[in-house]
Write a structure and sequence with these properties.
Layout lengths: L1 H16 L2 H37 L6 H16 L10 H25 L3 H5 L1 H36 L3 H7 L13 H5 L12
Helix pairs in contact: 2-3, 2-6, 3-4
Length: 198
């Protein structure tokens, strides 16, 4: 009877030391952080129809810019995201690209809107713009939390001896957010201070 209890205690201690519980904790933390990212992306997607409706009221607004925003929103919201997406780098990347396209389309829309004084003076548009900026900040915070939890999980999955537990229980490293235009942003901008000739 004493041997049996000793074996149970030894098994429990070895499981605790192998990182199994840490994998469970960090897996749940990453799922929770991911849910918050999705929540903020949905908040942004819900703002888009109101922004588009407000901008459509402006005479002669660039139709191509509006169309790109509408298409980007449709693409971003059509991708089905599940907790399994966190373990599928291809699906994760596809989702990330769609969200990046929506971010880019909204940025272009805001830049173009600057050229329309009536739109800039429209209180509803100004309120939506402030809400969108706040939502973009929330997305950044949520993504940063997700990045941290995934980093902790991936370090655990790759470190010895917990990497052995990861192999036994198939705890593969999770994909993380990347910079969409990495090659473009790594190129220094060209700056020309020469004055134009008259």
């Amino acid at each position: 009877m004493v041997k049996r209890w000793l074996l149970i205690i030894l098994a429990a201690l070895s499981l605790a030391g192998c990182g199994y519980n840490d994998f469970q904790r960090l897996d749940e933390a990453s799922k929770s952080a991911w849910s918050e990212v999705l929540n903020q992306y949905q908040r942004r997607a819900d703002l888009v129809p109101n922004i588009v409706a407000t901008v459509k009221g402006e005479a002669n607004f660039e139709q191509e810019t509006l169309t790109k925003v509408i298409e980007a929103r449709a693409k971003a919201t059509s991708i089905q995201v599940t907790p399994e997406t966190l373990n599928n780098p291809e699906a994760f990347n596809k989702f990330q690209q769609a969200q990046g396209e929506l971010s880019g389309a909204l940025s272009r829309l805001m830049v173009v809107a600057e050229q329309y004084p009536n739109l800039k003076a429209n209180q509803a548009f100004r309120d939506l713009r402030v809400t969108l900026e706040g939502t973009e900040n929330r997305i950044t915070v949520a993504r940063n939390r997700y990045i941290q939890t995934v980093q902790e999980y991936n370090v655990l999955a790759r470190s010895f001896p917990t990497n052995l537990t990861a192999k036994v229980f198939s705890y593969d490293p999770k994909p993380n957010f990347t910079v969409q235009n990495e090659a473009q942003i790594s190129t220094p901008p060209s700056v020309d201070f020469s004055a134009p000739k008259k």
